[in-house]
């Protein structure tokens, strides 16, 4: 849940169909700016409406209801092992652009290669010492920042090719981090892990169960008057 919204993932089959439809829509939007596509999801009970100029929405097929927003989850904030929050499309686009830049990735790989070369050329005693006990980093030792980008109210910091942290930049977080540094606490307050992609693989074999029966319920006075007929029809 985020800001009163509960985000639920589509199954793998629906996600792949939505991504394929989105790719086609982007191609069609070149010639037709108001292009639109519909994709049936969740056991063909709902439709996702994809529009080239608007955010996608989800609406039911067999009854009337207010459309729900649909978010293309490509970047997530990991609150816990079970709670992954999708970032907004604007944030995801910004992180994707920063993540796929070649300059810092090439530098990170060069640094990693240099470290591997140095370790392989150590003396036997040094290698044995390294295998026996890993060196501990001091709390005052700063982590090397390979890449960094400012988002809405936080900084996304890369300390490895796939190690990204979200650090809040509000006043409270800054003050608490300064206090933590003075007392020797290295962990950042308000820092959470960011990850590219969802925790579960998107497989086409993961589908929603097909519709077996449709039950139409009569509410109000009609429900009491036709109770026996409703039971007969649905039994």
Q: Quick summary of this structure?
A:
With 235 residues, the chain is an alpha+beta fold. It contains seven helices and ten strands. 36% of the residues lie in helices and 21% in strands.
Mind explaining what this structure looks like?
This protein has 235 residues and is an alpha+beta fold. It folds into 2 domains: 12-73 and 201-234, no CATH class; 84-120 and 142-196, no CATH class. 36% of the residues lie in helices and 21% in strands. The chain contains 7 helices and 10 strands. The protein has helices spanning 12-31, 89-99, 102-120, 124-132, 171-182, 221-225, 227-234, and strands at 36-41, 46-51, 57-60, 68-69, 75-78, 84-86, 147-151, 154-160, 163-168, 191-196. Strands 6-5-10-9-8-7 form a 6-stranded antiparallel β-sheet. It has a 4-stranded antiparallel β-sheet with strand order 1-2-3-4, covered by helices on one side. Strand 1 and strand 2 (46-51) form a beta hairpin. The longest helix is centred in the N-terminal third of the chain and has 20 residues, at 12-31.
Q: Characteristics of this structure?
A:
4-stranded antiparallel β-sheet; 235 residues; alpha+beta
């Amino acid at each position: 849940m985020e800001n009163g919204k509960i985000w639920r993932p589509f199954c793998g089959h629906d996600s792949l169909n939505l991504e394929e439809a989105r790719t086609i829509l982007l191609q069609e939007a070149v010639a037709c700016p108001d292009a639109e596509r519909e994709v049936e999801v969740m056991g063909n009970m709902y439709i996702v409406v994809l529009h080239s100029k608007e955010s996608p929405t989800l609406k039911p097929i067999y009854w009337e209801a207010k459309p729900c927003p649909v978010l293309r989850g490509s970047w997530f904030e990991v609150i816990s092992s079970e709670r992954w929050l999708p970032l907004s499309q604007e944030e995801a686009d910004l992180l994707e652009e920063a993540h796929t830049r070649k300059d810092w990735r090439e530098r990170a790989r060069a640094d990693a290669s240099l470290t591997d070369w140095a370790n392989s050329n150590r003396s036997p005693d040094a290698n044995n010492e390294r295998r026996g006990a890993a060196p501990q980093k001091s709390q005052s030792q700063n982590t090397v920042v390979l890449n960094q980008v400012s988002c809405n109210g936080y900084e996304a910091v890369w300390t490895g090719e796939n190690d990204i942290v979200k650090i809040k930049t509000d006043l409270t977080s800054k003050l608490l981090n300064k206090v933590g540094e003075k007392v020797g606490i290295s962990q950042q307050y308000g820092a959470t892990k960011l990850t590219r992609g969802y925790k579960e693989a998107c497989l086409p074999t993961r589908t929603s169960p097909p519709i077996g029966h449709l039950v139409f319920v009569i509410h109000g006075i009609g429900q009491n008057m036709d109770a026996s007929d409703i039971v007969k029809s649905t039994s």
